[in-house]
Amino acid sequence: MFDRIAKLPLLVILMGIGVLAMLVPGIYGLLVRDHYVGRVFLYGALFFGFLTSFMALALMGRPRINHPSRHLLALLGLFVILPLMLAVPFHQAVRNTSFLNAYVEMVSALTTTGATLFDDPGRLPDSVHLWRALVGWMGGLFIWVGAIAILAPMALGGFEVRAQRTMGAESRGTSQITHVADLGQRIRVYGAQLLPVYTGLTLILWLGLVLAGESPFVAISHAMSTLATSGISPVGGPGGGNAGVGGELMLAVFMCFAISRLTFTRDRMSTDLTSLAADPEVRLAAVLILAVPGFLFARHWVGAFEVDEEMNLLAGLASLWGSVFTVLSFLTTTGFESRAWEASQTWSGLDTPGLILMGLALVGGGVATTAGGAKLLRVYALYKHGMREMDKLVHPSSVGGHGGEARLMRGRGAYMAWVFFMLMTLSVALVMVLFSLTGEGFESAMVLTIAALTTTGPLAGIAAVEPISYADLSTPAKLVLTGAMVLGRLETLAIVALLNPETWRG
Fold this sequence. Notes:
Blueprint: H1 2-6, H2 10-31, H3 35-59, H4 68-80, H5 82-94, H6 99-110, H7 126-151, H8 167-172, H9 183-211, H10 216-228, H11 244-255, H12 280-306, H13 313-331, H14 341-346, H15 354-363, H16 376-394, H17 404-437, H18 442-453, H19 475-490, H20 492-499
Helix pairs in contact: 2-3, 2-5, 2-7, 3-5, 5-6, 6-7, 6-19, 7-9, 7-10, 9-10, 9-11, 12-13, 13-15, 16-17, 17-18, 18-19
């Protein structure tokens, strides 16, 4: 029976998971005596449970074609269709919002973007906040499993940088995504392997935040948001909680799981990597985390000298920590802002430009993690290619070393990374034009575009000169935002692969 259920269409299985998740805020609402919201989620679980069961019975036993198009469409349906179901109890629980707002909120949570249309956290009941964090947490899990089980064998999602094209495939002229293993089996295997890891890490972080002085409800919300890099918070971020610097330190440690997939799994896609110290993503992230706060700290220190402000060691350390935490947060596209970030900006009387945070979000985290952005591995491939080209200018007859995989990354890997960056640039230009057509100015269109395509929703409130409110967007702008969030989560290269005729042959 379990095998027959596991062979159901992926979207039906995900709907079943969503139904079970509705029980969590439903039970929590009843426990905190918010009976109306609790009943809404329990009734939603009952209704959609029947609907999903009927769909499962109708589709059970039917033969399924193991083809890349089916799984890519399932990923697309995950972020487009599933939020329609998840938005129903959200809409009924809030009551004073439109269904479109509820749908945008659920797309934002499921894609781990964390953009919220409810600027005042007090407007939403705690059960609804829990639902937002839980949906974001599930979205992070789906990305973890989908990236390793689906995108990796298709050489997408950043894996194309290390993908090796065989001579047989080249001679036949086939696409890089037409010859894959049994993806359904990979989904089941990796799902069973990663779910305990993902859940265990979340519970460990929750316990650590509670011990640091955070309330259990806020702690579990921040723990789920950190592991999923969604940045969803019922109190507006770590600054609104009670865990203090100790809590931020714990959050920073667990954000590191969004820097490299080697922190939680070995997918056997690389032969040269044996430790985190050898992972180029970890090394590049370490350089950024040290260099950018160091630059900001030095800039503030010089500014303090220029305005003849008294040097304060504690203020300087607070400024440095605020920069480190916020840089790490936006590099992993989590979007949490340190409570010391304001001190980082005002310590010297200078404003830190939000362009730095947008640049960090564009770089993004690691391949096959919950982070968005362009991915560190692609940036590293272009860097190695650039360094090799400069070496050839000095030594034209030199031969690049460091193994076959390094040569592959500098060659075809850099080419594929460059293709992705060109596609991402076109995506940014297109989405900005669409936002401009809805009446948004240049700055707000740029910030909204980068926030959506990098799945870093909190950028809108911190990167622009004046905070941008998602609630003030027009209906067309909300639709553009929704499409951009889905595009940013799936990545343009996967959409292009889905539109490729080669994908549908077989």
